[in-house]
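Checklist before submission:
- one chain only
- standard amino acids only
- sequence pasted in full

Submission:
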Amino acid sequence: MQTPLFDRPILRARHDRVARRGDADALFLLREAAADLADRVREISGDFPLAVDLGARGPSLAEALADERRIGTLVSLAPSAAVAARCPAPALAADEERLPLADGCADLVLSCLALHWVEDLPGAFAEVLRVLKPGGVFLAVLPGEETLRELRDSMARAELAVEGGVSPRVAPMLTIKDGGALLQRAGFAEPVADRDRIAVDYADPLKLFADLRAMGESNAMFARRRAPLRRATLAAALAAYRDNWSLADGRVAATFDLVTLTAWKPRDR
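Returned file contents:
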């Protein structure tokens, strides 16, 4: 049996914790991505009697689309029951790779910063294609390849110096080229991939770590080291972050690379 890439039970537990705590300040990236997706929906002509928020992390996308009258019903498919309870009805817990929806039922499928934790991304795209009506639209935003480059660099430096090797710390991220190719391979028409880079600065790298935890985005790689992070490794990582990624005012940089995918289900399917 193939070793999984992600620890799905840990992911669900973290999403549940985020749902319980509801740290609104830490979810700034989710709100930013949801607002951008809503703007893109407004640029697409047509009506959407049934839309799907795939991998919903809460009400962010529904709130961003609240004034979009062309959407009849927005169904939120969340990663757990606790998260679904925070979404406006109708909402239910669902696996992104096995959607509990009929073939050809949806006019619009949206996904906001959720699909980077999917084990089989081509399979998830195939599921989206299945549930879309011919001519239906798929819009998704995922973290891109440069996301958290500063953190990845700092952790690698620290682990090499202190522990003599590097462990998986950040999930693989999507490139623009791969995003378009995967959509085409799944059978979508007119696939488009573009990127938006968001630069955030923090007073201290520890605040970035806290925000990632509050977002439910800390390390969930199956191959991660299970032992707690050594104090010496953490100290070395913080020092490497400050030494290599400080800004002129003494704050530190954090890059979030957002790749947006747009595609249509062919009308002859």
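Reviewer check: Residues 8-146+172-200+256-264 form a domain with the Rossmann fold fold (CATH 3.40.50.150).
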